[in-house]
Amino acid sequence: MLTSKLFFRRLLMLLGIIFIFSITSCNDNDNSFTPTPVILNFSPDSTKPNKVISVLGGNFDAETSLNIVKFTSAEDSNGNFTIDLEAEVIQAQENALSVRVPLGAITGPITVTVNGELGTSPIVEIIQLALTITEISPASANRGDTVTITGQDFSEIISENVVTFGAIQATVTSASSTSLEVIVPQNAELGNTTVKVSVTSIQEETTSAFEVTDTTALSVLSYSPSGGSIGAEVTIFGANFSDVISENTVSFNGINATVSAATTTSLTVVVPNGVTSGPISVTVNGVTATGPDFTVTFSTNDSSTSLDLLKVFWLNDTIAYIVGDDGTLLKTTDSGATWTADTVIPGLAGTDDLYNVFFIDENTGWATTRSGVIYKTSDAGGSWTEWEDDDKTKSEEIRSIIFVDANTGWASGDNGIILHTTDGGSNWDVQAATFNSGTSTYTYDYDTLDFDNIFFSDANNGWAVAEKGTIISTTDGGSTWIDHTNTTLQAADIDLKRVIFTDANNGWVVGEQSTILNTTDGGSTWNTITITGNLPSDIDINYFEIVNNNLIIAVTDDAGLIQSFDGGTTFSSSMVDSGIISDSTLDLEGIAASPSGKIIIVGDDGVLLK
């Protein structure tokens, strides 16, 4: 027995055939009559947008362009259909049309128009697209492996399927509506990633999780220890290193380290000078792998004194000097591994403090005191001669000293003292700080300002900083000075402690109450730098050192450090680890870096860090 649905469909077909026969007969007798298209059936009975369907019936035109086929786009609550989505006619015969279902089509009737005559079909079922990924097999694979993506509503045209692993597009090698074969890209990021399939013809996309592996890849997994000080030995563990030492390049946060031993799974290295906390990278045969962060710490060094240490000066990578209270003068010739006390400056022990030190070569150097005396050595500290001070510098602290060659130097100190020598320190002249301020010229009152630091890049160009936010510069060796005083700092009575320039335009100034200023236009304007971290916002910065293009370190009161790891863009503060300095009230007074980036920090009670 026929089902009612099948019976109804066959009845429609029979009526259609009779109707077509009748129209054709009439047409034989009347050439002016245009037959109406008749739509009897579809193959398949249901379909999806973008799929090709056969429309069966009669009175179609054999020319594809003369058949206009439209699908339903909407149905209202009363069952009325909007039939307005035109479909592409691919092939045409008088009794059958092959058409592509347009995007946006829904279940409903279609129409076929031929020569102005409109025929309407029974309802055709349109199943909506649902582009999905149900499985990726295997769930993880190496770069270059082929994986199968199973799902639905992919395109059978390979080029219409765009597959990406993370941000990297993969090659699709075969495609069906339910399966894609793809190759994991060679440069896909290792680890968990997202696979996305986009079908351009239907403007849809779907995603799924996937893990990219590479069993032959170079990798950096861990370190022992996970942190340490400069010069410490570290073992790096990973995979696919070279067992030839020279074929492994290791860098700590961008600074290369020396490899002393190598296997395919471990490398032994020494933490390099000037390094900061950050990741370790290993490069082998042009391929680089990066591991987790390595924490760089300072270590204590035996200064063999409990006196306050004030300043440190590196001559080269092996020789450095430290000065401090009661005439303390320490020297190292082995990069700080050991220190010897030089006590040959007569009469200083217990009577005067050495405030600063500067050497121009291995033999020639100068040291300054709190009482305004400048000492010179010409035999690497074997003996010292005293510069005879005059009335203007008597009993005034000489806080800073610098030379640009063996003869030309400057010193600065309390009560406006700026001194200049052109004969290697045998004679010092007082330079009057004369300024051009708008329309008037004036001379600084020597009894008002204490100059903490002076810096010269050559025989002409120099800078000095003092209390009350005072910043001055010269382009004629100190004969005249230009005033750059910061009025805000002047009003707040901020004492500036250090000035340093890396070139004619770029310079830094630090001082009390967390003050860090930066200029990029030779001092015409100064930017105030914000400091983040756990130190008080008003802590005094005592000194400042540019270690390399990335690392800048300042030392503060109460065992504090302020560091920039990005060349001065951002600064963060922290205290020196309590395991290194147990007394958090001790002030750090000085810091210096050797040419290769070896760092020494000094402070109260003989604190000596490296």
Question: Topology, please?
Answer:
Blueprint: H1 4-29, E1 38-43, E2 46-47, E3 52-58, E4 67-75, E5 81-86, E6 88-93, E7 96-100, E8 111-114, E9 117-120, E10 125-126, E11 132-137, E12 140-142, E13 146-152, E14 161-165, E15 168-169, E16 171-175, E17 179-183, E18 191-199, E19 204-213, E20 219-224, E21 227-229, E22 233-239, E23 248-252, E24 255-262, E25 266-270, E26 278-284, E27 287-297, E28 309-314, E29 320-324, E30 329-332, E31 340-341, E32 354-359, E33 365-369, E34 374-377, E35 385-386, E36 398-403, E37 409-413, E38 418-421, E39 429-430, E40 434-437, E41 440-443, E42 451-456, E43 462-466, E44 471-474, E45 482-483, H2 487-491, E46 496-501, E47 507-511, E48 515-519, E49 527-528, E50 531-533, E51 541-546, E52 552-556, E53 560-564, E54 571-575, E55 588-593, E56 599-603, E57 608-609
Parallel strand pairs: 2-10, 12-19, 21-27, 50-54
Antiparallel strand pairs: 1-3, 3-7, 4-5, 4-8, 6-7, 8-9, 11-13, 13-17, 14-15, 14-18, 16-17, 18-19, 20-22, 22-25, 23-24, 23-26, 24-25, 26-27, 28-29, 29-30, 30-31, 32-33, 33-34, 34-35, 36-37, 37-38, 38-39, 40-41, 42-43, 43-44, 44-45, 46-47, 47-48, 48-49, 51-52, 52-53, 53-54, 55-56, 56-57
